[in-house]
Amino acid sequence: MSKTKTTFVCQSCGTQSPKWIGKCNSCGEWNTYIEEILTERKSGSTLQVKGNLKPQLLSEINLNQQSRIVTGNVEFDRVIGGGLVPGGLILLGGEPGIGKSTLVLQIALQLPQLRVLYISGEESLQQLKMRANRLNGKTSPCLFLCETSLENILLHLESEKPDLVIIDSIQTVATELAESSPGSVTQIRECTVAIMKVAKSNQIAVILIGHINKEGSLAGPKVLEHIVDTVLQFEGDRNYLYRILRSVKNRFGSTSELGIFEMRQDGLHEVNNPSEMLLSSHNDGLSGTATAATMEGMRSFLIEVQSLVSSAAYGNPQRSSTGFDLRRMNMLLAVLEKRAGFKLMTKDVFLNIAGGLRVDDPAMDLAVIAAILSSNFDVAIDKQIAFAGEVGLTGEIRPVNRIEQRIAEAQKLGFKEIYLSKYIKGVDFSRFDIKIHQIERVEKMIRTLFS
Ligand code: TYD
Ligand code: MG
Asked: What's the rounded Cα separation, in Å, for the pair 354 and 255?
């Protein structure tokens, strides 16, 4: 009797090892090795050459079949580069409860002109129907199926030949060919590759939903990301309503696009003008807030930075930041101390970005400094002032990218003044109808703002 052979596979990067090891030598992750059963390859089989595809010139390749399927969900279409590509695989990842199933179901229900197959391994048909009712979905001819066996899914794909298939989630799909448990790297890889082959040969667009693990990366991550054409990430703070859809990899478009949604009682709503919801209008005249003209991907919007500076009651002052990198905030505090002489080491400093968003745009620096000092002096900053500039370690204010787009957005939203770096080159400011302060150093901005 032959013994079943097993091997240990890193669940993070897919590296194999004959024995269990604590730290993966390949990706450096800890405790990621899990024992999986090896599938026997037929012995004695030799490499066989199949098919008679001939290499082609670019000019001979027919593009017609590549025309995109526009889903009608403007934010989603923009992030994926203008619509679904037949034969293209999209992987949609995100934390549990963020709204992945809701997003794909909404898309599935608004495509009456297409054959859509929604395969769920996580929810029953009744649950899907309840969700669809909640979304007020138009009655569309989308087909639903609860299935986790890869073999059966492939049969359905071959027989139904849908234009779009949605699989929620890839971690629940398993094949009999691999004996390891569903959700393991081997299973995920085998299943995705098999689905991809059928999808590419039948020109089916595929959306796979993928779970992310506790560190925030996709489970079985790198392995999957290499196979699929597009990797989308759906993120946001579950305590807030806003959700951001980002593309991390896209063979059919740019990765700098961004979609913003709001989760409401009846599903996800597209947010076409994010600035309006990120600027709170009710704290006029209060100290500790400043508005940054920031960019996420290719979109500019204005966002409020809030800060609270108070005397530290005990020894070590507290530093806390939500939505902005804490180390960067500490760096900015050090710059304020060293270059502008503010003794903030005896103060607690709290920082918050409105709306539960996480922003890492260096242009936030100026607004962060302004908010902190506004709270420190207890002097409110005029609501009609916006900021966009990076602060260097020496205290100089540095220019940031896409400055014209930022100014235009501030102007559009009715801001009257904007603080920028003095070192911006090649921009014609005369076309803007907004007062522009071009400042070279932090100290100077503080004098202009608070004197
Ligand atoms: P879901 O799509 O199930 O998340 P995922 O598939 O990423 O795990 O979304 C679940 C959350 O969304 C749930 O907490 C309830 C909320 N929700 C709404 O607020 N409104 C809605 O219309 C729907 C369908 C869900
Ligand atoms: Mg789900």
From this structure: 25
Q: What is the pLDDT of residue 445?
A: 92
Quote the pLDDT of residue 137.
Answer: 62
pTM: 0.74
Chunked into runs of 10 residues, the chain (451 residues) has average pLDDT values of 74 85 87 77 59 79 73 90 91 89 92 90 91 78 91 92 92 85 83 92 92 62 82 81 86 81 89 73 78 85 92 85 94 92 88 84 94 93 93 94 91 90 90 93 92 81
Q: What residue owns the CA closest to ligand 1's atom 23?
A: 267
Cβ of 243 less than 6 Å from ligand 1:
no
Going by alpha carbons, the residue nearest to atom 10 of ligand 1 is 97
Position 104: which residue type? V
Ligand 1 pocket, residue 137 CB under 6 Å: no
Pocket test for ligand 1, best of 123, 133, 172, 263 (most atoms within 8 A of CB): 263
Given this model, what pLDDT does residue 157 score?
A: 92
Q: Is 269 in the pocket of ligand 1 (CB under 6 A)?
A: no
The ligand placed nearest to the CA atom of residue 96 is 1
**97 Cα–ligand 2 center, Å:** 7
CB neighbours of residue 159 within 10 Å:
8
DSSP string, 165-224: EEEE-GGG-B-SSS-SPTTSHHHHHHHHHHHHHHHHHHT-EEEEEEEB-TTSSBSSHHHH
pLDDT of residue 281: 61
Ligand 1 neighbour 121 (Cβ under 6 A): no
| Distance (Å, whole) CA 249 – CA 227 | 11
Q: Which tokens belong to 155?
A: 């049969």
User: 169 CA to middle of ligand 2, Å?
Assistant: 7
* Cα–Cα distance, 204 to 87 (Å, whole number): 5
What's the CA gap between 20 and 3, in Å, rounded? 19
Q: How far apart are CA 82 and CA 74, in angstroms?
A: 9
Q: Which atom of ligand 1 is nearest to the CA of 265?
A: 20
Question: Nearest ligand, CA of residue 94?
Answer: 1
How far apart CA 451 and CA 446 sit, in angstroms, is 8
18 C-alpha to center of ligand 2: Å? 35
Pairing status of strand 205-211 against strand 289-296: unpaired
Residue 27: what pLDDT? 83
